[in-house]
Amino acid sequence: MEEYRVLLVDDEEEIRTGISRKIHWAALGLSLVGEAGNGEEALELAEQLRPDMVLTDIKMPFMDGLELCRRLRQSLPAAKLVVFSGFDDFEYARQAVGMGVSEYILKPINASELSEVLNRLKNQLDSQRLERRNMESLRRRYEESLPVLRELFYTRLLSGQLCPDQVQERAARYEIEMPPGMWTAALVHADLSGGGEGADRDELVLLSVQSFLEEHFKLDGCAARVVLFGDTAALLVRLSGEDKLYPMLEELERLSLLSQSYLGIPLAAGVGAPCQGAEELHRSVVGARSALDYRALMGGGPIIYIGDLEPQNAAAISFEEEDQRQLSAAIKLGSPEQVEQVIQELMERLRQTGLSLSKCHLFLLEVVTCLVRLTRSGGVAVEEVFGKDFTGAVSISDFSSLDGLGRWLEERCLKLHALLGKQRTDSAWRMVEQAKDYIAGHYADEKLSVERLCSHIHLSPTYFSTLFKREVGMSFTAYVTQVRMDEAVRLLRDTDEKTYRVAQQTGYSDPNYFSYVFKRQFGLSPSKFRARLNQ
């Protein structure tokens, strides 16, 4: 098992040396990864080392142990904190406990006592780690959430949000049988257009429809299940053969009449075209939704089959929600190669339909609409992607072949990918420059902090810290220290200000701590540094 990381903080070097030598760290399953002589230095180290335990003295210069614990409780909430004190003072102990300190030890520190404390805390960390990894606990939580996960699976399946290779894997994971073969979808709702209480979106009515279909739908040789999907009950049927489609329509007609008798609610349904495999059910759902739309516009019987109204290949060229998600993700977050791959897969799907170029007009408009939305939401001028003469309309007649259409789409997508990438880089650079300007104007304020800066530039501290370190190559704290030290050098070189005044003008209220940081940075105290400059 991986060793836990320990940070030791005490202003007395002898005590740090004694503890580091007398404790058998490896035998306890621990690793002493760092030492600090005061709270300020400890905070910087904790930011870099992310220790699992912090052992700290209470009485230290610049920042005492209690303040350090308070700050660490915010930045390292899971860390175990141990406080040393040479004062048998109940008030210290009370404050320490109030800050979530795990142990309070009186000096002088006994190695065996400290080892017992460390072993106890190590066991607590082990228990927490094992609890997180406890498969039985995870299984119990998983089983409790299984109904919700199944519901989410069906919603994503019918919306086209799952990749084909995800469907069977997730169905098996959620203990859902989705055998191969021919499937079709019917979207069923209560037909209250002629009046009656409630509305077709009423959840109670919808649940009644779902229960009714589960109890009464029967078709020899065919398996069915009913799930709630938006404002409808989606009836998913695995047909044993193509010859079962029209018997299924007849069964739905029967159920519509039966529902009127049993529930006082007539049913209406749109039925999509059959598809091969549950992976394609979202295509059947598109057709079923279109069938309901036709019924709303044109009237007709309670059961409408899309195949009676449209050629069955009409849905095969739609630019679906999953296509939009994949294309958007590639353009915004992927590489140029990933953008090209998505476009190539879309064009290959078009070729496999065998449709002529003229019948791909709707598909083209849907893709262009997606690209325009991405362009505008990304703050990029549409003309930069589509050219200065772009009016928002693109005609399929502008292209002589599917290959030409594919090249045009690929060029537009790669252009948008590059522009969004440049904008992200420019945005990050501007944000960092804004932060640097703020630091340059406030480094003399001893209360300058990442939280105060982030409040000014309206970013979360966690995101800003990651962004700043990535762009600048050092943490916020290290950068502020560098700015302050550079200014301190300038003041020592160009002015006769006293050291305590230089400290105040560079953000240090404590001249001793200023001298400590300066010496750590340059290897000399401020006074010796100035003396060397004047030689």
Topology:
Blueprint: E1 4-9, H1 13-22, E2 30-36, H2 39-49, E3 53-57, H3 65-75, E4 80-85, H4 90-98, E5 103-106, H5 111-133, H6 135-159, H7 164-173, E6 182-190, H8 203-216, E7 223-229, E8 232-239, H9 245-262, E9 267-271, E10 275-276, H10 281-298, E11 303-305, H11 321-333, H12 336-353, H13 361-377, H14 382-386, H15 402-442, H16 450-457, H17 461-472, H18 476-494, H19 499-505, H20 511-522, H21 526-533
Helix pairs in contact: 2-3, 11-12, 11-15, 12-15, 13-15
Which structural traits does this protein have?
535 residues; alpha/beta; Rossmann fold; Alpha-Beta Plaits; 4 domains; six-stranded mixed β-sheet; five-stranded parallel β-sheet; 58% helix; elongated
The amount of beta strand, in percent, is 5-15%
Give the helix proportion (percent range): 55-70%
Which CATH architecture of the largest domain is right?
2-Layer Sandwich
What is the distance, rounded to the nearest whole angstrom, between the alpha carbons of the first and last residues?
A: 57 Å
| Main sheet properties | 6 strands, mixed
Mean pLDDT rating: 85
- Estimated radius of gyration: 34 Å
Number of strands: 11
Question: Which structural class fits the helix and strand makeup?
Answer: alpha/beta
Report the CATH C-level class of the largest domain: Alpha Beta
What is the 3D form? elongated
Number of domains: 4
Low-confidence stretches: 194-201, 312-316
Predict the CATH topology of the largest domain. Answer: Alpha-Beta Plaits
Q: Work out the helix count.
A: 21
Write the CATH homologous superfamily of the largest domain.
Reverse transcriptase/Diguanylate cyclase domain
